[in-house]
UniProtKB/TrEMBL annotation:
Stated name of the protein: Protein ElaB
Organism of derivation: [Pantoea] beijingensis
GO-annotated cellular components: plasma membrane
Sequence ranges assigned to domain DUF883 in this UniProt record: 12-61, 74-103
UniProt GO MF annotations: ribosome binding
Coiled-coil residue windows: none
Length: 103
């Protein structure tokens, strides 16, 4: 089930990145620097932007760690049971070949 949410998580990361870039542009280009309300709002927005970037960085690290663990687990399995790995690889290759032949 975790693999079905990964594309959604990737899209969420892309959306958050776009949002942070847009917010950075807005903060750089708008407002009256002499207005106290603008200064407070800008400070709050900059802090929120910093927090989002930190969380996004931590999430990316988590995704990388999980992917790395999955690769190590698969590698260990193939080393322990090489014929199973060959069978799975052959089956996947056959299915992909059949799907491509249908086109």
């Amino acid at each position: 089930m975790a693999t079905s949410t990964e594309p959604n998580e990737s899209r969420l990361d892309d959306d958050l990145t776009l949002l942070t870039e847009t917010l950075e542009e807005v903060l750089k280009s708008s407002g009256d620097p002499a207005d106290q309300k603008y200064i407070e709002l800008k400070t709050k927005a900059e802090q929120a932007l910093h927090d989002v970037k930190s969380r996004l960085s931590e999430a990316s690290d988590t995704y990388y760690y999980r992917a790395k663990q999955a690769v190590y687990t698969a590698d260990d399995y193939v080393h322990e049971k090489p014929w199973h790995g060959i069978g799975v690889g052959a089956t996947v290759g056959l299915v992909i070949g059949l799907l491509l032949a249908r086109r």
